[in-house]
Amino acid sequence: MNKKNMSKIFMIFGISILVLAIIGSTFAYYVWTTGEEDTTKIVTGIGAATVIFDGGSDIADANLRPVSDKSKGIIKTINVKGDTTGLTFNMYLDLITLPDALKEESFRYALYNGETLKKEGNFSSDYLISNTSTCTENSTTHITLLTNEAISTTNTTYTLYIWIDGANYTNPNTMMNQTFSFKLHANGKGAVLGE
Known about the structure:
By secondary structure, the chain is of the alpha+beta class. Helices cover 18% and strands 37% of the residues. It contains 2 helices and 11 strands. The chain has helices at 3-30, 125-131; strands spanning 50-54, 66-67, 74-82, 88-97, 107-113, 116-122, 133-134, 141-150, 156-165, 181-189, 192-193. It is elongated, with a radius of gyration of 31 Å. It starts with a helix and ends with a strand. Mean pLDDT is 76; it is low at 20-48.
C-alpha cells in the first residue's frame, strides 16, 4: 500500500472515531440510568378513578335575616360519590364577597353529613384570621370545610347551612342591605373530579 492510501484509511478511521465519540456523548447526554438503590418513582392517579362533586344549583337572591334556627337560613345540599374505594377529598368554602359589616360572630355556617356535624364556625373577623387561607387554585380566601374525607362509592350527601343567628346574638343594623357571595370547590387525592 502506498502512503496516499494509508493516509486515506487513517483519515477515514479518524473521522469514524470522531463520529462515534460525538454520537456516544450525545447519547450519554440524553440517557439517564439509575441503580436499584436510587430508582426514580413516578406517582400517578388511580387509573380511571373519578369523584363526582355536585355542589347543587346556584343560590340566587337569597335574603338573610336574623333567625332562630339554621334551617331558616341558606341551605345548600352537596353530593359526593367516587367510582372506586380508597379516595379522599377536601372541600372549601370560597369567600367571594364578604363586607366588613357582615363580619360578625352571629353570621354562622355549619356543615353536616346526615345528622353528624362535620364543621361549624362563623364569619367574624377574629374567626377568619385563624380559620382561612388563600386558595392556590383560584386565589380567593377560603374556609376548609373537610380535609381528607373518605369518599364512598354510594352517594354521600352533605348539607351546608349559612344563617344569621338571631336567637343567641344581638345583630347590629349595619348588617342590613349587605351582599355576601361564596363558592364551593373540592380537590382530592387519587382521583380527578368528574364533570
